[in-house]
Amino acid sequence: MFFEMSVCDTPSKNSKMDKKSLTPFKKVRRKNWQQETAAYKVQPKGGPQEYPISGDRFIPKRFQQDGIDHNLKFIGQREERDILETGVLWTASYWRQSSFISAINSTFGIQERRLLQFSSLQGTAPEAVCSGSADFDWPCNPRPRPIAIQNATHEMPGIVSPVDYNMMDWSPKDMVAVSTGQDIMLWHNLDETTMIFSVDSPTALRYSPNGKYLSIGCFDGNYPVLDLWEVKTSMEFEVSYRKFFLKSIGCITCIEWSPDGEQILCGTMSGGIMVLALPKLRSQLIREHRRKVTSIKFSPTQKYFASSDTSGTIYIFDGALKKRILRLRGRSVVFDWHPWTGEDMVVAERRPASIFILNIPRRQFVASYKRRDDRITIKTVTFSKITGELLVNVLRRDDMDCVTCEILVLASLNRLVDLMCNSERGTIFLMWNPDGTNIATVGLDDTFSVWSFIPTHKRKAILRQKEQQGAKEKNSSLSLFKGMR
């Protein structure tokens, strides 16, 4: 006869049960009994007392090694971890510890990672911990916690195959221009209006710094041309100028405006760089590259500009004289300028993933990160103009050969601030908006997303601070002598 019994039930104890019917059993010690009990040694009376070598141990879960690493009582010099292997859990634990350390260092003026090394605060003005601290590989004012969130997501078929950063830009008038090589689509973020213009084989596009013009590299028959579209209204454009080039250049592969909006630099398929001076677009040819020019970027101060080609070579030029001052060789490189100094730049090799921080005046790499395998690929690198944080877009393959796309926000090459990712769609960086508060990304399922990198109240405070600083400089008597320096 069989019956069901719950695990909480206990069979009734029958005192008249036959003892011979019971299954015999033998008491034995557990295999780890030596770790649970003490080894006592009987000592003779009157002799010296000896204490046991091992005693009773009880190790609760909170004192495991993982718990110790995340416990604020055990903060100290932590072991270096691979920054590109970092996950969400370490992101949260890092900021609980880093904020605590930064607060202590700021309060007591600690300069190093040793407890009893204090600086003299008498007669000196307090400085930001991030500005001169040796803990940072570049000037940075990181956010106190991960705060980037998605604001909007739209369907945009074909944008991810492949992503060409020379075919998209975000206007200061909050208008996004994107092309997949056939037409140009303009999307206005405020009223969410979309316009599509038919252009003959567009190859590159870029807005002017003030958003007044949209420069487009395309073709007129078999001749490569540069069109300047003047933005009249959000719904009206006018082709104000067209510049023809020789067939020998191939096509315009990338466009870059100078920060003052007076020059346009056009990279070409043949490797030349055309410098066009506004308003008449008089041209000057810079011939250094031997391969297709993939990217051109001015430093924020316009003191330098850099260009890269498909062979992995980067040339750095003097911004005024247009003369080459430095050459770097790599393999499939991407780069960006630091938004504050104008003299530091980040250079990254896509595979194997490598990151270098280069100071131009000293001709020196001040920090570096290198991998030896091909499991992680760097898509692009870019700095935040507000916080100075470095965004590294990586593509990581797991053991099942599945690809994960995410954006790591770094305050240093060993400090992670934020992790921007979507576990279902992936996150591939596209572009910043002009004021540096929002980021446009694309997913592997052809979804276009807009992220808020800085909250609204912080953005308003930053803009208000800039307005007050501008008004203060305008009313200052020293501003009268700026032209005499």
Task: Kindly describe this structure.
Helix content is 11%, strand content 37%. The longest helix is centred in the first third of the chain and has 21 residues, at 88-108. It has helices at 33-36, 65-70, 88-108, 129-132, 456-475; strands at residues 149-155, 168-170, 175-179, 183-188, 193-198, 204-207, 213-220, 223-233, 236-244, 252-257, 263-268, 272-277, 282-287, 293-298, 304-309, 313-318, 324-329, 333-337, 344-349, 354-359, 364-370, 376-383, 390-397, 403-412, 415-421, 428-432, 438-442, 447-452.
Short description:
The protein has 485 residues and is mainly β. It is built from five helices and 28 strands.
Beta-strand residue percentage: 35-45%
Query: What is the β-strand count?
Result: 28
Q: Terminal Cα separation, in Å?
A: 105 Å
What is the CA-based Rg, rounded?
31 Å
- Percent of residues in helices comes to 10-25%
- Number of helix segments? 5
Q: Mean of the pLDDT scores?
A: 76
Q: Largest sheet at a glance?
A: 4 strands, antiparallel
Secondary structure category:
mainly beta
Lateral arrangement of strands in the main beta sheet? 1-28-27-26
Shape: globular
List the uncertain runs: 1-17, 35-42, 50-77, 88-98, 113-133, 477-485
